[in-house]
Structure formats: C-alpha cells, structure tokens
Design goal:
It contains nine helices and 15 strands. The protein has helices at 52-55, 134-146, 163-174, 187-195, 210-217, 231-240, 269-273, 290-302, 319-327; strands at residues 5-11, 24-30, 38-48, 77-84, 94-97, 104-108, 116-117, 154-157, 179-184, 201-204, 222-227, 241-249, 277-280, 310-314, 334-338. Strands 3, 4, 5, 6, 7, 14 and 15 form a seven-stranded mixed sheet that branches. Strand 12 (241-249), helix 7 (269-273) and strand 13 form a beta-alpha-beta unit. The longest helix is centred in the middle third of the chain and has 13 residues, at 134-146. It is globular, with a radius of gyration of 20 Å.
Length: 343
C-alpha cells in the first residue's frame, strides 16, 4: 500500500547573501494516491547541483523554476519502483526523475517528464546521476556539439574538480585533446586533477590570477574553454584563446551569492580580434545525443580509461549540509545524498 506521507526538504526562507542551514527544514508531507499510469518510487540517491544556488534567489530563470519558500525542493534523483500502475515500468525497476529532495515520490511512469528507466548492469547506480547522468552529459554536449573539440586541441576547464569539470577533463582526453588544463580551489584539488582525472596541469585560482596561470601553463594559447564559472576566469580565457577559439558557456557560478566576482565587459573585444565563437547552452536541448553519450561513456568507464568519483553524504536530514558544502567547494566530483542502502 502507498505510504500516506514522505519526508521532504523544504525551503523555509530565501537566503540572505549566502544560504545557511536554517534556510531549510525536513518536513513530513502527504503523498498523492497512485493513479493510472503512475509509479511510487523510493529514492536511493539524489543529486546536489551548483545550479540550485541560483534557484534559491528571487530572479526567475528562463530554463527552470525557482524554489518557493514553504515548498519542497526538487532535483534529479534515482530510485527503485515500489508500486506501479504503469505496465512498462514494473516494481523493482530503477528510474531517474526530477522529484528528489524527498524519500518517496509519485510520478508518471512513462513520460519525458516522469520516470526514465536506467540499466544498473551498464554502470553502478550512483554513476547514473554523475558521469552517466546530467552532469556527464553536460560535459559531453559542451565539448562535442558546442565547442566542437578537435584532436590536437588545447582545452581549458574551469571548476575542474566539480562534477562537470572532472567529466569534461576526462572526456576531452578521450576525444583527442592534446593538452588539458583545469582550475580548482586549493593545491589538493589541483593535484587530484592531474593524478586521477587525466589533466596535464592544474592551477589554484586562489593562489594565482588565472590569466597568469594560463600564460604559464599554456604559453602557446588554448583552443577550447569550457566555462563553468564566468567572471575573471572567462576574461582570462578570452586572452588565452587562439584565433578561431571556441567557448562553451555552461554556467557562471561567480555570478551567484553575496561575493559576486565580475570582470569588465571590455574583455569581450578579444572575441572580435580573434574571431572567437562563444556559445551558451542548456543541456536538455540536446537529448538526441543521449544514447550516443551513454553507450560511449559507459564503454570508457568499463574499460577503465575514465573514472567516476562521487562525494556521498548519507541521510535526507543532511541534504542541506551537502548543498552548503558543495557551494563552498567541499566536493570532489559529483555530490550525492544517499537516502537508503542500495537494494
């Protein structure tokens, strides 16, 4: 029988300059009855993403909705179907969906906005929210379709120790990049980028201006910049790019929060002088690439040529802490909350 309630993480109030634990609360909320074509999912893992920072603010985003005070948060999650009124998604099936930040969810069983079945034989469950999930797919789309990476390119990735960044560095290498450079916060993360994720070099943006670091690590310039940060790092990349260089504009974390870091827009003259291509993208516009991505990346993963790395926090009651840790740079690779042990 469908449980009547489920625990959810709610937004109590909009944050001030930076979010704090008191902005969130775990509450008991009713579950709707299971309707025709719907499934009841017990969530196993849920994704914690940098984009959630922007959704805490008042300015509405054009590609998604903002969180509302008094309402549950949501986000990507992976779970197991406990009950089903959808013939194509039986009990025991593993699915991804958008109703995370809660222990159980009722959703449409077979729909683009509902449950997306995954194959646990292809890769471990957490991987389907990380390297084989939306973050890995973002890296793949940005490199292949947006930046049109070519063999022999020199590639620069900002926020390289995060979920998208660790994927982008490894994918760039597999796609034929000659040299891959990343930035991260702190010497330990920079060392991991080189030792574990296939980067040729990494720079600590806290210790040296990125423009100086790029002049040292890529003295002949770069061909591709995968931008997760914006601000000063984007400005530095514009100066380092060679003529005809390409920029995949994925995210601009420097623009969120109280300590927003900006850069003079006059740096954009470099795009004119060097005939650069700067292209922003929203990954959901490129779902036609997903089958190719899953098969290709799963093959790389099985062969051991790339690695999946997750930072896992246990328990729904610690979900807000996981988000705050992520926003403070406390993760390596994908940040996940594990709700219950795997079946």
């Amino acid at each position: 029988m469908t449980p009547r309630t489920t625990r959810v993480v709610c937004l109590v109030r909009r944050p001030g300059k930076e979010p704090i634990p008191g902005d969130f609360a775990v509450e008991e909320r009713p579950l709707p009855p299971l309707g025709e074509g719907q499934v009841l999912v017990r969530n196993l893992y849920m994704s914690v993403d940098p984009s959630m920072r922007g959704r805490l603010e008042t300015t509405e985003k054009h590609y998604t909705h903002n969180f509302a005070p008094g309402s549950p948060l949501d986000g990507r999650a992976l779970g197991v179907v406990e009950e089903s009124r959808c013939p194509s998604v039986p009990p025991g099936a593993f699915v991804r969906h958008q109703l995370g930040w809660r222990e159980r969810a009722v959703l449409v069983g077979a729909d683009t906005d509902g449950a997306d079945r995954i194959d646990p034989r292809l890769a471990p469950l957490p991987t389907w929210l990380g390297l084989l999930g939306q973050t890995g797919f973002t890296a793949y789309v940005g490199l292949t379709r947006i930046a049109a990476l070519r063999p022999g390119d020199t590639v620069f990735v900002s926020a390289a120790a995060g979920a998208v960044g660790t994927a982008a560095g490894q994918f760039a290498r597999m796609l034929g990049a000659e040299r891959v450079i990343g930035t991260a916060g702190g010497p330990d993360k920079c060392a991991l980028l080189v030792e574990e994720f296939g980067y040729d070099a990494a720079a600590d943006y806290r210790a040296q201006p990125v423009r100086e670091a790029l002049a040292r690590l890529a003295p002949d310039g770069i061909d591709v910049y995968f931008d997760n940060v914006g601000g000063e790092q984007l400005a530095a990349a514009l100066h380092a790019l060679r003529t005809g260089g390409r920029v995949a504009l994925c995210g601009m974390m420097s623009q969120f929060g109280g300590g927003r870091r900006t850069a003079d827009i006059n740096h954009l003259i470099q795009a004119v002088l060097k005939r650069l291509t700067l292209c922003g993208f929203i990954v959901r516009d490129h779902d036609d690439l997903r089958p190719e991505f899953e098969q290709r990346v799963a093959g790389w993963l099985r062969s051991g040529r790339i690695v999946a790395r997750e930072t896992v926090v246990d328990g729904l009651e610690h979900a807000a802490e996981a988000l705050l840790s992520l926003l403070g740079g406390g993760n390596i690779g994908k940040m996940l909350v594990r709700l219950t042990p795997d079946p």
